[in-house]
Structures are given as structure tokens and as C-alpha cells.
């Protein structure tokens, strides 16, 4: 029977059922991936990610319209009209000298979203690993574990995006490469909300770790309008972050906290600092924050520095630049020093632990200079302080790092750098002769060697890397033109990264022909090479990239913030693994950034993501955790158990979370991670504790590991040793626990590759180290003496910390040779502070330097130029300097002669010895006649101050007269009131005095005397004389109605005054200039004075009478024969004056005498009468003292620094006639 196909409803129904089930299952499995950015009823309104960094700022309330991908491919969905915070991160590390227990975080506004292909500014480059205080603009909108960089690409049409999955908005591995597992796994996690802190925009977190389950979180509300903290909350967890307890009631409900500190050597000791706007107090806990004791402070703390070993020793820097110390963990404080430079104070860090209580600091002197000072933390008096560096240093230049101390001193417009190794005397750091540095940064002092970045005279955005010998004195070039960038705080960041776990291994970005390329070294800068790019991309497609035209380039920005991983990361416990973001091509770029990993210490690299991710190390590098940089909420992360070869997707929360940051548990066995974030803009802080222990079913055993040998492109000898490490086998999924380090380390035989060029030598194309053109290899050490030996360089020196043995070591090592006798050459004498000036009566330290010669057998003779000379048997006895005190001022010729049996050499220095100029007084008459020469003299105190320059200003002249003499003659051709100013320059001090002089064709003057009882109330100061002058003039005007007079009370006792009768205008406006007019007025005034009508009341019951003494007409030089009567009168006046002098001499009394200003103005020095603006503490010079220029006022002047030069500039505008103001 023939069978035909027919209709079988049961079979068809079954087929349709299974087809529908198949489509339903696979379709819904991929729905979450394809609709990763779709809206969901259970998902909160999407808003931009909030960044969590060390110092992040937020301005909530800034409205921003934002659109998201809709359900259909790339179509735009509805706009988010929420009042959300955008992301614009600002990284500002803690200042040097401050040690945080945790890290401050702030939510910030995000900048507008950028479209794919838009070029972003490059994030700031990384400073070296040792300089952990890195700064720079972090990634706008990146998640907490990220750095300052973010890829903003988004496909506007829903096409394949840059991620591994290809679709915009997908998480890594959402389709595409097989190395990403599609199965979603779940991590054990718990979520806790900090209820009531939704408005707080700053947070500081401390996680004790090291077998402690305590976590402390300080949240704050910082009001940017007020510039202060208005609210704070303190939270504490004792179960690794599963739950938190609010401790506001334990620290005080009204207490506002500003900072959280933890002792680095005892994590149980916690210190909280209150907001200084409210109160200045410390809250101290010794039980990991469970209980607190409050202590009041009498100063405001700016920063703290804990001792590296003593848990109770702390240095506190106040806001008024004072340094305090405490040996009781802040319970009591002692003032150490005032005027300390910010961030320039250090604990003693010597390797031998000697003097642990020694404090190093940079402080300002009273005259504005900077000095390096050391003292004990409990006794920093003037008697116990030490000044290791002779003389002053540049401001903000002291660095104490390990066994090294660095200072800078600028002279002649060039900076000079000095170093002290293990507190030995300072030596000048020797760079190649013509490097001419204009900036230097100490990168590292590890392994008894200094790694420094130097910007030379012809560089702007690059630095050269130099490496030193053990003492840090002689430097050789390691790499040229390393890229640098400037952070937000103005700090310089060098694109150099030291790989953790492998000594001598560095990565650097070098600028070559305006292209930045990444180089790697395994021997501390001796050799550098480009990075070999991966052979295949993420999808397995071949990459055609041939060295040297194409290579892998990495961004080297690291992060001190534990919430951020930086652009590159490595760990001591995982020495072969480096994860970094970068690109493949001819140069480093900010576009097309991908993530790369190496598991063989940089020899080969693999691409792991096509978008930037934050990668964290767990379980000693046995587990890598990756979290995508995105502004969208996420609930997944990626784990790799085989050093980044394959990745599995895990969910860590049930609801998508805007991730602010991630913090891993401190300690060796890091398996707990806390994710900080929020579900929505208005929600509280969400703390998600993720426990990775559940993904392991056992601990690793010995058979789970394999050996791995460190190498550089097949070369096993790295830094003179073969090192073999123990690695977990990639197929084993077990928990490692504690890190065991290298299994074995075997020294290698020395080769030429283990030696670098010595100082003064340069490596040529043939690999040989030959002397530079400026270096003389035959120059001997200064310490070499006849009969001794010295090390004669071969041009090579072994790389510091290189462990090779035998081989060519003997050939390349410096050889000891006998010191030949040599005549002195290159002799120099200079002062310790580099200045050519010194103060009278102060110690001057001279340094004698000799480039060549037998120092131990040379006689030294020093002539100080003041009649004193000394001799020394050898130069070693002058290492601390030759001290001398000059008792007189002047210019001294200092000569030094060094001679031995083979020859001699001499040097000369001209030293200007001065004493501080304290006061200048301009002496000139009150009134003078027109077109008549007068003398102006600048009288100084003290009279001998050294070389001076005088600058004279007359009236409104714009050009001064400059002289070296303190006295000049001049004439005035215009009547009226004229000013004269003299400025006296003495070294860095400039003082000035201003006087006003009246100029007329004719005038008369009269000496006035007073009742003897006035002398009892005369304090002989300018202010008193000025007030009495005003009172006397008022009394004269009241009785005579004559207003055109000037009165000046003269200094000294008995009290007297000078009355000047000046030309005037009558009621018709006619000027009265004739002698008759003036004589008529004089007779009127004399009559009133003789009748005792001129008087005033000094105080109740004390009446003072004013009398006339003598009258003089001026000018007298214009007399004609018709004025013979006047001439006879003048002759009689002269005779009368002679008689008066005789009587004074005979009876030892002072009687006011005739004063003729037109001709005898130089016979009397006038006092200085200050105006209202003059300093009140300037004493006045009595007339009897001003008769001699050597007898002057003793006055202290205030020093005001101008720029970097301390310049004393005081204006003494002294108008001698106080009635000028009231005339």
C-alpha cells in the first residue's frame, strides 16, 4: 500500500508548539541585552552616572535636558526632564603633609554628553608611582572605579558600537567574542542605604581591613554658596559593610564634622576634626570609632602628618602657618615653629631609625627668606634648632624623601639643586654641564638612588629623566623628552609609570617629532623599547602593526584615590599582570581607546575590551574585576580568573545602580568589595557589599600553581638576576590567599647591559660610553691627595640594585689609582649664601673651592681685606666654611691663595659690608628766596651704612636726579610751595623723606620764645611741636588778624619757634611784597607780643606766654646805596648777635638768636615734622643733635618684602611747617 503525505494535526500542533517555545526562550534570553538601555517599570528614571573621586563637587539643582536610547534601535526616546546632576569630575589630591584615613568624595555635575567621534581633551598624564599626589582632570561621567578618562562614543543610529557586544548601550560581552560568557551569574551581595543623607554631597570612607570588619563613613553637605559644611553624618559598620549604624548621637547631635583621620600604624585609632566655622575640636577614638572623647583646640588645623612608626606622634599645621606637635595622639599640643611653609614639614625617615623624633621643616625668617631647620618634636627652641644647609634656600623647595634631603637655591637667575644623603653635608647635584635646568621634580628615591625629571632650558612640555649614583650627586640621562602635563592645581605630572612588583621596570610616554609613543624599560632606564601591539583584536581578527612604525601606546595616568583605578594598574602581588587603556597605531591618541592586558610583564599584550573599563585586582591578582565606564546605571560586572583571557558576566545588584565608586577590602586576602552609588537622583547613598568568597569552593594547593620566569623579549636576566615566580594555573579556580612572592632569584653573570654610562660620559651609536665634549676625564677628585688613591672611572657604572656578579664587572668597574701631585687649579671663593653683601657685626661664611690640586698638602691663606688674615694647613679644615666678622662698613677685597710644592692659584672676591639703614632725614630750610641756591642734605641713621644711592625728586618733575652723594644744591625760580623727596637705597632697603619748602622773593622771620614752664611739658616729639605750632598761629591771628604767617616750633630745649612773615594780598587783590609791607606787619606782631597779648592755655591752669626774640628781613643781599641805613641796622644786628653768643658762653645759658634764612640757612638743621600719615613711632631729632650729621635719631623701620627681594621702603613726607595745612 502506498503511503502519501497527509495532514496530521497532532504533529503539526506539536511542531508549532516547539517552534514557538524555541523562539520565545531565545528571544527573551536576549531581550535584556538588546534592551539594556530600555525603560522598565521597575527601573528608576535613568539619569547620568555620578562620579566618585577623592574631591568631587556637585551642584544639585542644575537642570539639564537629556535623551536616552529608546526601545527601537537608535531612535531617541523621551527626554529626561529630571533635575539631575551632570558629571564633571575634578581631582584634587590631599596636600602633602596630610594623611587621610579614607578618601573624600563629592558628587558633581556632568558635562553635556558628547557624540561618537568627538575629540576629547586628553586626561592629565600620570606622575611616577612614587609621587602619589597626582592631579588632573578625571573622566567626565565615569564610574567610581574609573579614572579621569571616558569614552563618550554612542551610535546615533543604533549601529554596532565600540563595545564587545557591538550594540550601543550594551555591556561588554553582550554578543560577539566567544571569550565573553553570556550566562549571567549572581554574586553574593547586600545593599544598605544611608537614610537621611540624600542631600549630602561629600563622603570620606575608611575601611580598616587586615582582619577587621569595621568601615567608617563620614558624609557631609557642603554648601558652595556659603563655602562651608552645614551638615554631617558619621556611619559605622562592624560586619564588612552589611549594615551601618549612625553615630551622630555619640559625637554630638549638633557637632559638624569636617575630616576623618586614621592612624596609619594603628587602624584602631580614629580622629575626627570638627568644622572650624563652628568650633575647633578633635574627637578621638581608640576602639575603631565605637566611642569618642572630645578635646578643644586653640588653633585651626589645616593638615596632619602622622609619624610613620610611632602611632601617637602627630604634626599639625594650622591655618596661620604654625606647626604643632603631639605625642598623645592629639590630646595635647606643643607649638614647634611659626612661619612654616605649607606642606614643607617632614618626619625623619632615615633607614637606620636614628632620631625618630627629628622634624624637618622649611620656615621663613623675619626678613622674608626661607631656611631649612631641624629640631626635636618636643623642643624646637632657638638654642636647639639646627640649620643643616648653610644660608637661605628658595621658597617652597625643601623635600625630605627617604635618606635624601633636597633644597634649591637660585643665584644669577639659575636654580641650583643640593642634596644631602643620610644627613651628610649638602653637595650640589651634578647634571650634564649644559642641561641648564629650569625645573626639577624628584620622582623616586627607592633602592638608594634618585630618579628625577628635569626640564631643561629648551623644553616646554617635556622633561628629561635622570638617574643618580647612590649619594644622589652625579646624574646621567635615562630618557629624553618625556611628555608632561599640568594639573588643575598647577602641578606638573610626568607620563612615567613604575610597574609594581618588578624593580627597574618603567613605562614612559616619549615625545618624538610631535608624536607621543609609549616605551618600556626593564633595567631602570638603561634601555628602552616600544611596546609590541597584539597580533589579533578582540574578535580574533589579525592586527597588522609592525615595529617601529606601529606599536601599542598606553595612557599612564594613575590614581591615588582608592575609588578609581586609573588608566593603568599593576600590583605587587601580581607582578606579571598590567592592565591599561590605550590604542594601537603610530602615536598615543585619545580616540579609539581600548583596554589591554599583559600577563607576562609587558612582553605581549591582549585586547580585552573595546571601551574603557575600570579593572580591580582581587585575590592577589587571581581575579580581575572589570566595570564599564558609563553614565548609565548598571548591575553587572565582569570577572576573569585566567589573567584576562576570558571573562564571565556577574550581577552584583538586583536594580541598576549609578555607580559612584568601588572600594576593595585592604589587606592581602581581598575578597570583599563595596560599591558606592545611588538608584536615582533623589535617593540616599547605596552601599552594596559584594562578597567574592562564594565563587570559590576551595583554597589553592601546591599543584594548582606553575612556575613563571620573568623575561624581556626572551632575555631572562633582568637587573642582573633570573627571577621565577609562582602563578596559579589559568584553568584552576581556587582562592590563593596570601602572596608568596618570587619562588627563586639567581644572580646572572655581568654583561655590558648591566652597566650604564658614568657621569660625564655619553653612549654612542656603537654602544660605547665616551666622554662628553665638556667633560675632562683626567680631572681628579677633590679629596685626592698625594700618597692616597682615587677611583678612576672607566666610563661605566653598574646600574644601582643590579645583582649581577663576575663577568665583565671587573673591566667596567672604576679602578683605584694613586693620586699624582698636581698644582692648584680652578680656585674659587664665595660666600655660603652666594651673596656679595654682608651685615656689619654678623658672621660671614666664606667657602673655598678648588677643582684640581692636592688639597691635603696645600697651604691656604685668606686675607679678609680689613687688616685680618688667616692661614690653614689644608683645604679639608675649611669644609665647614671660613667665618669672619666685619666691624666696619665698606667694600672689602677678600683674597685667597692656595699653594703647594707644584704651584699656586689665587682668587678674589669683593664684599660689600653694610649695616641696616634705619632712618633718613632730609634737612633743608623752611623758607627760601627765589633764584637762590640752597643746600639739601640727607642725614642718615646710622651714618655709616655702606654704599648708597640717592634719588632726588623736585616738585612735579618726572625724572629724578641720581647721585652718590647725600647733599645737593639747587634753586627754585617760581614762588610758592615746593616739595623735595629723597630716596636712599642701601642694598635691598629703600627709605625716603619728603619736605615742603616755601619760596618767595622777600620774607621776614622772627624767633619766638615761650614761658619757661612750657619746657616742663615738652616731650620733644614732632606731633607735640606740630600741635603747639598750630596753637601759636591761632593765637597770633586772633590778636593781629594777620593770617599770612607760618609758625614752626623747633626741636630741643628751651622751647622756641620760628615765625615767618610772608608776602600777602590786600583787599584789592594787590600783592604786598615790599620790605615796608613786611616790616609793618612785623612791627604789629612785635607790639602784640611785647604786650603779652599772645598766649594760649596748654591745660587747665597752665598759661603760656609767647614772646618776640629777634626780627630779620630777607633778602639782605639785594641792598643798594640808598639803603645804607638798613645796612647799618644789619651791622648792629650782627654785633648784637656776637654779644649774645658771648653772654651764652659766659653764663652757660641758651638765648634764642637771630636766624637769617636768606643767607644762613645751612647753619641750622631743621627737624622733621610729620604729617598725619607719618608713622607715629618715629622719634624726632632735637636741634642740638641735628647740628652734627653723625648724631641722629634711633628708629626701627618695618621691612616689607617685594617679590623675592626684601625691600624696606618707607615714606617720610615731613612738612616742617604744620601751619601749611591751616594757612
From TrEMBL:
This is VPS10 domain-containing receptor SorCS1. It is found in: Membrane. Residues 160-177 have a biased composition (Gly residues). Residues 863-907 form the PKD domain. Belongs to the VPS10-related sortilin family. SORCS subfamily. The chain crosses the membrane at residues 7-28, 1127-1145. InterPro entries: Ig-like_fold, PKD/Chitinase_dom, PKD_dom, PKD_dom_sf, Sortilin_C, Sortilin_N, VPS10, VPS10-sortilin. Residues 92-177, 1204-1223 are annotated as: Disordered. The keyword Repeat applies. GO terms for biological process: post-Golgi vesicle-mediated transport. It is a single-pass type I membrane protein. It comes from Junco hyemalis. It comes from the Eukaryota. Residues 104-121 have a biased composition (Basic and acidic residues). GO terms for cellular component: Golgi apparatus; membrane. CDD domains: PKD.
